[in-house]
Amino acid sequence: MRFGANYTPGEGWFHHWLDFDLDAVRADLDSLAGLGLDHIRVFPLWPLFQPHRTLIRPRAVDQLVQLADAAAERGLDVAVDGLQGHLSSFDFLPAWTQTWHRRSLFTDPEVLAAQEEYLRTLAAALADRPAFLGMTVGNEINQFADGPHPDPDRITAAQATAWLERMLAACERGAPGRMHVHAEYDAAWYRDGHPFTPAQAARLGAATAVHSWVFNGTAQRHGPTGTATEQHAAYLIELSKAWAADPHRPVWLQEVGAPAPLIPEDRAARFMEATVANALDCPDLWGITWWCSHDVSRSLADFPELEYGLGLLANDRTVKPAGRAFAALAGQWRGRDHRPPPRTTALVVDAGGVEDASYRSVCAPGGAVFEAWARLAAQGVRPCLVLPELAADAEHVKARQIAEIRTPDEVG
User: Gene3D superfamilies attached here (predicted)?
Assistant: First the structure.
């Protein structure tokens, strides 16, 4: 079981790439290693690394390698996100995709070729580093393909699949055999008609990455200590497995955090402990990567209020209560096998077809599947989720050790 953090530099946030200071990075990494973590997820800013379509800055790539080497020296493995893309409400897109050079991020041939080369270059630069885990194509880049983004590049689900397959192949060419994945925000699971789909998330790449944020209506509906809130991450892990063709496909809880004020600051550590415990009760979990490592400095303006206090550590690197709680959990699990018992009661997810999931909003907070799952969990049942098509597959049901299958209507 892996415990890590999404690395948000304590000095300068992700703008630290503009004034890269390896000593400051080392101090940040020392503070994370001191918590007993084993990996970090790192975010190059795409416009700074590839400011022109045919220019990938060698110095920027070298700085990324220096960061990865510094992490390895402290016992921290490194996963790298490529197309940033979108971070904490800010978009970071290179000028050659915008305004006078506006072209689709997902279908323009020249943009696709440039993205491929960028991802391949980053992966290749790290391919010989033993601590390099692999690439994530980009951080929640699906938000650029649909509303509520104010200026999306709209595409079809087939175009999203083609884009993902091409980008993942580029990562594989750069660093063969590593854990290359893609990661979407929960519109892929919850938003009807969204071009990035549950089937893509659960079937493309080396593992399924899920991002759990309870400000999506869960905490508003169920409160900070409600079962649905404290088990939202576990629900997404299990929901992803409903679409997985491989019954034991690994799932990476790649982002999860305690957003104030929906999770009050004095409850953040408790929320973390409950969230982690419930996630660890899910079979086939690869690891948990908390959002985030260090708080955002109050000297930086215009972030949504909830973004400032999500760190395990303050931006001066002092450990917060949530950091102490996460460190304790990492210590408890270090060296242990992750073998929770199977979840033998399955709830059927009829979301409108395996590929399209045309009415997947039944899985969202307030939807029939979501609320039935939460009701079962509150009763002490450990439910899993299964598509109707896979519920009829005897081998799949046997592989997951499902003994009972129920529908949302039966739950009530």
Answer: Glycosidases
Cβ atoms of 285 and 279 closer than 8 Å = yes
Say how far apart CA 161 and CA 181 lie, in whole Å. Answer: 13
CATH 3.20.20.80 fits 2-333, yes or no: yes
Percent of the chain clearing pLDDT 90 (strictly above): 98
* Phi and psi, residue 204, nearest 5°: -110, 140
DSSP three-state, residue 259: coil
Q: For strand 251-256 and strand 208-212, is the pairing parallel, antiparallel, or unpaired? A: parallel
Give the type of residue at 281.
Answer: D
Q: Distance between alpha carbon 314 and the CA centroid of its chain, in Å? A: 22
**Region of 49 on the Ramachandran plot (φ > 0 left; ψ -120 to 50 alpha; else beta):** alpha
Tokens 């059927």 belong to 348
Sheet containing strand 383-386, edge to edge, reads: 383-386, 345-348, 404-406
For residue range 196-235, list pLDDT tens digits in order. 999 999 999 999 999 999 999 999 999 999 999 999 999 9
Do 1 and 48 touch, CB atoms closer than 8 A?
A: no
Q: What does pLDDT average to over the chain?
A: 97
Listing DSSP states for 197-224 in one string gives -HHHHHHSSSSEEEEE-GGGTHHHHH-T
Q: What is the pLDDT of residue 182?
A: 98
The token pair at 243 is: 């679409």
- Retrieve residue 28's tokens: 């940040």
Q: What is the residue extent of each domain of the chain?
A: 2-333, 345-411
The structure's pTM equals: 0.97
Confidence check: pLDDT of 337 > 90: no
Whether the per-residue pLDDT at 336 is higher than 90: the answer is: no
